[in-house]
Amino acid sequence: MIVDLIVFIVILAFLILAHEYGHFSTARMCKMYVEEFAIGFPPKIFSKKRNGTNFSVGAIPIGGYVKIPGENGKEVLEEEIRLNPAKQIAQIPEEQYFYSKPAWQRIFVLMAGVFMNFIIGWIFLTAVFMAGIPQQAYVGTIAPDSPAAQAGLEAGDALMGYETAEAFIQSTDEHIGQNFTFSIQRGEEIKEITLVPREAPPQGEGPVGIQIQGAGIERQSFFSAIGKGLELSWEIFSMIFILIARLIASVVSGEDLFSRLAGPIGIFQVTSQAADLGLVYLGHLIALISLNLAALNIFPFPALDGGRILLVLIEKIKGSPVRAKTQLWFNGIGFAILILFIIAVSIQDISRIF
C-alpha cells in the first residue's frame, strides 16, 4: 500500500510538474517575471528562491501553480503593491507583468501546460505501441437469465486462455448442449466457470449470452508507433473534452454521468492495479491521466487555463481588459466549485470502497 501510494504521488507530481513547467518556461521565454513556481498546495514543506523565483512544494499534491504578477489585471496588482510596497514585484519593470504582454503571448503561456500534458500522453502511448500489450478477451455485457448470468459471470472478467472473441465463440460452438468449463480472472482471483451453451439462444445473445470485448495492442515499429500514438492521443483528448461538456450539461438534462467519475482516491486505486500488471499498463495509465489533465485544463471553465484564455479572448473582442474584480470573482467562484467537486468525487470514491 505504501509503495503504491509513493508511485501514485510520484506520477501525479511528475504530471503537475510538467504542466507547470510549460507555463514557467514559456513565461520566461516571453520575458515575464515569474514570482513563484509551486507544486502542491499549502502548507509548504519546501521553499527556495532562485533567480528571483520562489520554488516551493506543498503538502497537498493535487495541483500546482505558476504565479506571474498581473494575471488578474493591472488594478489588482497595483493594490497589492500599494499594500506592500517593499514586496519584490514593486521593483519589477511593468513590461514584465502578465497584463502588459500582447494577447497572443498570454494565450501562449496559458496553453503551454496543456501542450506539455498532451505531449507526455503522446510519448507514453508511443512507448505502449512500441512495447505492445498481449491480446486478451473480456466479458462485456451479460444478458439476463442467460447461461453466463446463471453461472455468475460479471462484466470485466478476463477469459483466461482466449486472446480474441472469435476464439472463445468457437469454443462455445463446439460445446452446444454440453458442459463447457473455462477459467476467468476477476481482479487477483482466478475462478473456474462451468455452463451449458444454448442451442437456440434469443436473437443477438449467442449460446452463452455475453458480449465479448477484446483488449490488447499489437507491437508497432518506431515510426508507426509515433503516428498511432498521436492519433490515439487526439481521440482520447477529444473524447474527454466532450465528456466534460456533457457532464456540465447533465446538470440541466438530468443525465447521470457523475456516478461514473473517479477522483484522486479512485485514480490511486487504478494506479495501484496498473502497477501490479506491469510497466506497460502503468505507462498506458499515465498517458490517460496526462491527457485527462490536458482536456480538463483547456476547457473554458473559471480558474482553469481555458477559463483564463477565455478572458483574454473577451478582452480582444471588446477592445479593453475585463474588469479586475470581475476576473477575481470569475476565477474565485470557479476554484471553489472545483474544490467542492473534488471533495464530492472523493466521497463517492470512498463510498465505493466500503
TrEMBL record:
It is a multi-pass membrane protein. Keywords: Hydrolase, Membrane, Metalloprotease, Protease, Transmembrane, Transmembrane helix, Zinc. The keyword Protease applies. CDD domains: S2P-M50_PDZ_RseP-like (cd06163). Residues 8-340 form the Peptidase M50 domain. It is found in: Membrane. GO terms for cellular component: membrane. Pfam families: Peptidase_M50. Its cofactor is Zn(2+). Its main location: membrane. GO terms for molecular function: metalloendopeptidase activity. One of its GO terms (biological process) is proteolysis. It comes from the Bacteria. The chain crosses the membrane at residues 6-24, 107-131, 236-258, 279-299, 328-347. Belongs to the peptidase M50B family. PANTHER family: MEMBRANE METALLOPROTEASE ARASP2, CHLOROPLASTIC-RELATED (PTHR42837:SF2), REGULATOR OF SIGMA-E PROTEASE RSEP (PTHR42837). This is Peptidase M50 domain-containing protein. It comes from Candidatus Wolfebacteria bacterium RIFCSPHIGHO2_01_FULL_48_22.
